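Hi L.,

You mentioned the student needs an example of a multi-chain input paired with its predicted structure. This one should do, with 296 residues in total across all chains.
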Amino acid sequence: MTSDRGSVSLWLIIFALAVIVLLGFVVDGGQYMNARERAADIAQQAARAAVDDLSTAALRQGVFTIPAGACQQNGPAAALVSEYAGNEATIPAGGCVIGGLTAAGDCEAQANPPPAGGYLGPCVKVTVDITVSPAIPVGTFGAFTTGATEQATLDCGSNVRTTGVC
Amino acid sequence: MAVEFAIAVPGFLVLLLLVAAGGDWVSSSGQVGAAASDAARAASLARDWASAASDASAAADDDLKGVCVGGAPRTTPAPIGSTDFARAADVQVTVSCTVNLQAFKVIGFPVTTTFTSTAVAPLDPFVQRS
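Structure written out for the whole complex:
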């Protein structure tokens, strides 16, 4: 009987260590997923902000063009991302692209000459990176960075998506 | 040994509860974040400030139905770029919600945490607002 004494304490210690690792997976893994979702949301709003920055001069000619400034440092997309509290979100270099919407639904930097079928309209694609410091910094879960890429497209009210002219 | 285990059982249970509480914490913080972005988007579509504020609250309330202690979350919208909603570039919404962690509620030991999340949505410059 005496040889068994105290063995449950050992069990409890092993169990506690296992639980801490499990807790790390649950909490940090969850935070990772939340961060991805948040990055996707910020990227969506930033793309929307950039696509709204239409050139009014071109608009008077009936042409829809998004000036290069929409994606620059002091442009609307960068401003929107910087307004998020904590500033944990950033647009990486080359993370904001003004392009054309392809028939497949992707937003690509416009090639010259355009692909067969042309582009369906001007669009902006924004990538946002988020750095998270996890609540339980166990093992590999130190500060991690995750991100998402989202796009927004200009659409004409009635005369839908021709060649950038409504 | 059986007696020892019987004594240690509450200890094991508390440890397991900790994992459940952690999951709860993460899930609630995600829900409040999602509610903030929905609220900001809802506010950005409104034509005047009064409806922007009420649309934001409605969106957040809808997302956090039954999550917050004491009913609805606290939703605070703010125009950015100008104090005037008609001239602002973006709209920022802060959603704050106090959550009762279910895992602790089970053992009759309520633990509440307040989550706050902020989201920003752009305002369409080609829409007339007041």
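You could point out the following to them. The radius of gyration of chain A is 24 Å. Chain A has a mean pLDDT of 83.

Best wishes,
N.
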